[in-house]
Amino acid sequence: PRVIQLPPELCEPGQYHFVFLSSIIHAFADDLFFGMKIKGCYQFRVTRNSDLAIDTEETSDLLATIADELTHRNYGDEVRLEIAHNCPEEMVNFLRDQCAMHQDNVYLVNGPVNLSRLQALHSMVERSDLKFKPFTQGRPNGLTSEVEIFGLLKQKDVLLHHPYQSFTPVIDLIKQAASDSSVLAIKQTLYRTGAVSPIVDALVAAAHGGKEVTVVIELRARFDEEANVALASKLQQAGAHVVYGIVGYKTHAKMLLILRRENNKLRRYVHLGTGNYHRSTSRIYTDYGLLTSDKQIGEDVNNLFIQLTSLGKIPKMHKLLHAPFNLHQGLLDKIDREIAHAEAGKNARIIVKVNALVEPEMINAFYRASIAGVKIDLIVRGICTLKPGVQGVSENIQVRGIIGRFLEHTRVFYFENDGQVEIWAGSADLMKRNLLRRVETCFPIESKRLQKRIIADLNLYLADNTQAWILSADGRYHRAARNEGDEMISAQNTLLEELAKIN
After folding, report:
1. 422 alpha carbon, distance to own chain's centre
2. Is residue 322 annotated as part of the catalytic site, yes or no?
């Protein structure tokens, strides 16, 4: 282990003492090199390019090619060199030359060169006063483990909000489909699932049970390539049909389709999400998941799977927007519609919640909307290259990010549309790679009941004065203002109280 806990007898009661493995090496370097005189001992850390050099158009077996390329990742090109600040200049220059590194990418660090190792302390220290209170994920009313989900979805759509609500209903749905004699086929996309996945186990069981199981696996999900190669092999051995999507385009869409025979007719059940089919991250990432039996959405998802597995021409969608085909233009069209409403004196407003906003055409569209008088609230957790508050350009735009216990991951788009509100959720951020170089889905939330829920969530994020950071025109973030006497509002804490049970 990189962090080593000292024995309790060396500590005061209630205290914990730790030492870095690197510090032990420093202290005992003379013993490690017997018979030699140690002149110095300094830490350094090399960061390498993790991209896999794969020509998807030339390879005939993507699975084997990626598995082979993974063995070379540890020898990728160096992109950053971190060295202890007290390392002699001569040795710094030696390391830089050995790594063929430009001086701009060399960093002298006063302290440990790899602070990420400190993450181990969380599980090593028993201090409840220093940790978040544990919580039990909730479930939507009526959606218990015992309920027959197909029957419920015939009556209404279900919206899951993770991590406040459990991811288990999605797993239950696949398990029920695997054991249901009326289910003929299951189709699913997998981007990140984790090394041990109950979803993969359920798909294997379905394949063993004679279901037609089709899985679109994105082998090139960064840092999950090895796990995805393993699960692809596992599914293939079970008899599932495994494909790897469209050449040159990562499959980042989160889709599950179940085909079921009911009264001599076929009915489709669908799950669409903003996050991965990953049980662990569903406890720390905020995401929406829609469960529905809507006929047109089911047909759209089915057509997307046909396109992903047969590479044929994709039919026109009934309800879904999808990248790299019509998602980019579809969002631009909806912004232009708000501009037209504003110019006509009608109600116009846009609220967008994403992880990143860097795509130039989308940013220019928001600027045009602001100039036209559309009020725009952007909730961006990560990078944002739009400048809010610029006179004559973006004074109607506010950008905020929520940084709290959970990683904000939902992608939601709200359009006022002169009172005919439209709400969309999806897997794509407003980046070129998502909108133009990936397979993504964006799905409408049409139920007024569910729309009301999402609007309440968005308003809660906009009211947050505890964990919110506001972006200024100069590119700096500052904490959201809270005047003396104002109620403290935390969107994440409020949602925990409303949707989950805190222990």
Report:
1. 23
2. no
